[in-house]
Design a protein that fits this description.
single chain, 356 residues, alpha+beta, D-amino Acid Aminotransferase, Chain A, domain 1, D-amino Acid Aminotransferase, Chain A, domain 2, 2 domains, eleven-stranded mixed sheet, eight-stranded mixed sheet, 7 helices, binds 2-OXO-4-methylpentanoic acid
């Protein structure tokens, strides 16, 4: 074990690596973690000196508020390596802004920018070997904050822990995804926390999604809570519909996650000369388009999922299958995004952030 103190961060390195036990060709998403983790506590009204240490279990009191009130937010990011060994993040500033926006909504104190970026840099430098080059490979990064203060009291905590853990990743969804359009359950409501990456937003989807899975669908596309007439997001990804040659996606609001991949697709559509309407998307409109053959594609966009084509959907017992289309928008956007992320194409919007 080596103790190092760098710019503002105390580092204890792992004595050995687990990397040789990992089959990088057969990774299950989010199951294997690298040798190190980043941790920073908020106590006495301020964020303390951050630490990087070997990945390990940690001790938290059972009364910690996160366990009782779900005061927790997180982010999803990825690191990519090019063939020359350079390491990149994709639009990390967006993740930094979003975790603090999520935190503010859950009454969690703002995390300092220099700790976030320096923490990522040091962590990736130590776990560099875990980032494999090649399109399709990435290191998934999970920054998160939890309320650690021990207290059974339904009020914001006075102590928190900000952490970053890393997991080598390939595709989140293997193959195509089939979905149910929500008719009864809701993911979020006006004035709620749907826009935030709050842990509870995900937990609340597990039960309805498990019912959908029993019917053979992997995911739910959530509809607006008040009428269930408008399609919003899939929970693990934002959703795009291609009707003829036009793309349609729901607007951001306080119910929908402001996805980094989503906003990249909207920009890339403009670059490619593809019309993209950002507006409410009616369930009826999509079913009508499926019936008259103008619905060409549905795909999800998210950090973990990248771009995931939807092969079928069900609503009110009506099932629609989507046929493969040649030169699909999904495959064009996926390639464009992966090429930028892996330093294989021009980055005209400055989305690539070289870390190492
Ligand atoms: C991501 O896309 O990074 C997410 O956080 C979604 C999660 C369900 C894996």
């Amino acid at each position: 074990m080596t103790n190092i103190s760098t710019y503002e961060i105390d580092i204890v390195t792992s004595e050995n690596t687990k990397i040789h036990d990992v089959d990088f060709n057969n990774l299950q998403f989010g199951r294997v973690f690298t040798d190190h983790m980043f941790s920073c506590d908020f106590v006495d009204g301020k964020w303390q000196r951050p630490q990087i240490m070997p990945y390990q279990p940690m001790t938290i009191e059972p009364s910690a508020r996160v366990f009782h009130y779900g005061q927790a937010v997180f982010e999803g990011m990825k690191a990519y390596k090019d063939d020359d060994g350079n390491v990149f993040l994709f639009r990390p500033e967006e993740n930094f802004k979003r975790i603090n926006k999520s935190a503010a909504r859950l009454a969690i104190p703002e995390f300092p920018k220099e700790y976030f970026f320096e923490g990522l840099r040091q962590l990736l430098s130590l776990d560099n070997e875990w980032i494999k080059p090649g399109v399709g490979n990435s290191l998934y990064l999970r920054p998160f904050v939890i309320a650690t203060e021990p207290a059974i009291a339904a009020a914001p905590a006075e102590a928190y822990r900000f952490m970053i853990i890393c997991s080598p990743a390939k595709a989140y969804y293997k193959g195509k995804v089939s979905v149910l359009f929500a008719e009864k359950f809701s993911r979020s409501a006006d004035g709620g926390v749907g826009f935030a990456k709050a842990a509870g937003n995900y937990a609340a989807q597990f039960y309805p999604t498990s019912l959908a899975q029993k019917k053979g669908f992997q995911q739910i596309i959530w509809t607006d809570a008040s009428t269930h007439e408008y399609l919003e997001e899939a929970g693990t990804m934002n959703i795009f519909f291609r009707v003829n040659d036009k793309l349609i996606t729901a607007p951001n609001n306080d119910r929908i996650l402001d996805g980094v991949t989503r906003k990249s697709v909207i920009q890339l559509a403009e670059d490619m000369g593809i019309e993209c309407e950002v507006r409410r998307v009616a369930v009826k409109e999509i079913k009508d388009a499926a019936r008259d053959g103008s619905l060409k594609e549905i795909f999800g966009a998210g950090t973990a999922a990248v771009i995931s084509p939807i092969s079928a959907f069900e609503h009110a017992e009506d099932i629609f299958e989507l046929e493969d289309v040649e030169d699909s928008y999904a495959s064009r956007f996926k390639k464009a995004i992966l090429d930028i992320q892996h330093n294989l194409s021009e980055d005209k919007h400055g989305w690539r952030y070289e870390v190492l």
